[in-house]
Design a protein that fits this description.
The protein is α/β, with parallel strands linked by helices. Helices cover 31% and strands 26% of the residues. The protein contains six helices and seven strands. Strands 1, 2, 3, 4, 5, 6 and 7 form a seven-stranded mixed sheet that branches. Helix 3 crosses helix 4.
Length: 196
C-alpha cells in the first residue's frame, strides 16, 4: 500500500518545493508554539520545530501516512531573525545583514507511526551592502513582511544575495536533496527514481 504524504505546513514556498520533487501530497498546518527556548541554539530550534510540526499532524494519522515537517531560521551571529513585526524591525534586520555573511538553517523531520527522523541543513548567504534607500524601497514592495530575516531569496530580495554556499532550496524553505533522501528512507518511492 502506498503511503500518503502530508506536508505539515501551509507555506506556499514549501508546497512549491515539495511539488517540484514530483510527490503527490496534501497540506495541513500544525498549530504549535514557535517561541525560542532560553539558550536554545538556532539549529536545535529549527530541528525541534520541524519535529513538533511532524508529530502534531502525525497524532491524528494512521501508520500509512508520512508527515513532513520543516522550519527555517535566518541567523546572524547567534541571533535568530524571525519575521519582522513592523517596518523598523525589517530595517534593523536588513541593516544587520547588509554587506555580511549570515546563515540560514532549515530543519526537516519525517514522522510515521512511532518513527521520527530529522536533520538540519545550514547554508551561508552573503549579502551586498544595502543603502537606506534600497531597504526602504524593498519594504514598500511588501515582500519582507512575512519572511524570516525580512527577505525572500526567491523573490525581489534575491538581488541582494551575492553568493551562497550550500543549498538554495533550503534557504527558500525546504532542502530538496535531503528531503528526497529522508522520504526514501521511510519507503516513499521517489517519483523520478520510481519510473520504470
Amino acid at each position: 500500500m502506498n503511503k500518503q504524504l502530508i506536508l505539515a505546513s501551509k507555506s506556499p514556498r514549501r508546497k512549491e518545493l515539495l511539488a517540484q520533487l514530483g510527490y503527490q501530497f496534501t497540506c495541513q498546518s500544525a498549530n504549535i508554539d514557535e517561541s525560542v527556548h532560553e539558550n536554545e541554539a538556532p539549529a536545535t530550534y529549527v530541528e525541534r520545530l520541524a519535529r513538533e510540526k511532524a508529530e502534531y499532524i502525525a497524532q491524528g494519522q494512521n501508520n500509512q501516512a508520512l508527515i513532513l515537517g520543516s522550519d527555517t531560521a535566518v541567523i546572524i551571529g547567534d541571533k535568530i531573525l524571525g519575521k519582522p513585526k513592523n517596518k523598523q524591525e525589517a530595517v534593523d534586520m536588513l541593516t544587520a545583514l547588509s554587506g555580511v555573511k549570515h546563515q540560514v538553517v532549515t530543519g526537516i523531520a519525517v514522522a510515521c507511526g512511532n518513527r521520527l527522523e530529522s536533520l538540519v541543513v545550514s547554508t551561508d548567504v552573503f549579502f551586498k551592502v544595502l543603502s537606506e534607500h534600497e531597504i526602504d524601497n524593498y519594504w514598500q514592495t511588501g515582500e519582507p513582511q512575512d519572511k524570516a530575516g525580512a527577505y525572500g531569496i526567491q523573490g525581489i530580495g534575491g538581488q541582494f544575495v551575492k553568493q551562497i554556499q550550500g543549498s538554495y532550496s533550503s534557504v527558500v524553505g525546504l532542502p530538496l536533496y535531503e528531503t528526497a533522501q529522508l522520504l526514501t528512507e521511510f519507503g516513499l518511492p521517489n517519483p523520478v527514481q520510481a519510473v520504470k
